[in-house]
Amino acid sequence: MKKYLLTTVMIFGAMTISTQAGCAGKGCTNINITTLYVNKTGTYVGTSGREGDVGDYIHCKPLNGKYFLLKKNHPNYEIMHSTLLATQISGKKATVKVELDKNSSLCQVAYITINN
């Protein structure tokens, strides 16, 4: 009985950890897309997380400490921009992973996942 109880607690504990929202490491997990600012460079993405917590790990800087850049010349720009827009409109949670843009030192969007 103790074995089953311990297993159940471990599973639910792992589920709780994996669904926590926030920004760290290489991106933001289980967050809302709050801002999409589009200009000739691309789309700047603001989230409900603290984007500034990401930059130190991969040595990039979110624009004004709070926006990631999806560059217009990214090969999947249109699909990724549409995914961001759909996520924002639907109110679903997302995961946004970033990488260093070597030309500007900004945090550039690498990929996006829509969460349930």
The main pleated sheet reads as: 4 strands, antiparallel
Mean model confidence by pLDDT: 84
Q: What is the CA-based Rg, rounded?
A: 16 Å
CATH architecture: Beta Barrel
Straight-line N-to-C gap:
33 Å
Question: What is the CATH C-level name?
Answer: Mainly Beta
CATH fold type: OB fold (Dihydrolipoamide Acetyltransferase, E2P)
Strand content: 25-35%
Number of helices: 3
The side-by-side strand order for the widest beta sheet comes to 1-2-6-7
Q: Which short descriptors sum up this protein?
A:
alpha+beta; 116 residues; OB fold (Dihydrolipoamide Acetyltransferase, E2P); 3 helices; four-stranded antiparallel beta sheet; three-stranded antiparallel beta sheet
Produce a short descriptive summary.
This protein has helices spanning 2-18, 52-58, 77-90; strands at 22-24, 27-31, 33-39, 42-47, 68-71, 94-100, 107-114. With 116 residues, the protein is α+β, with helices and mostly antiparallel strands.
Structure description:
By secondary structure, the chain is α+β, with helices and mostly antiparallel strands. 33% of the residues lie in helices and 34% in strands. The chain has three helices and seven strands; from the N terminus they run αββββαβαββ. The chain has a four-stranded antiparallel β-sheet with strand order 1-2-6-7, with helices on one face. A three-stranded antiparallel β-sheet has the order 3-4-5, with helices on one face. A hairpin with a 6-residue loop joins strand 6 and strand 7. The longest helix has 17 residues. The termini are far apart. The N terminus is likely disordered.
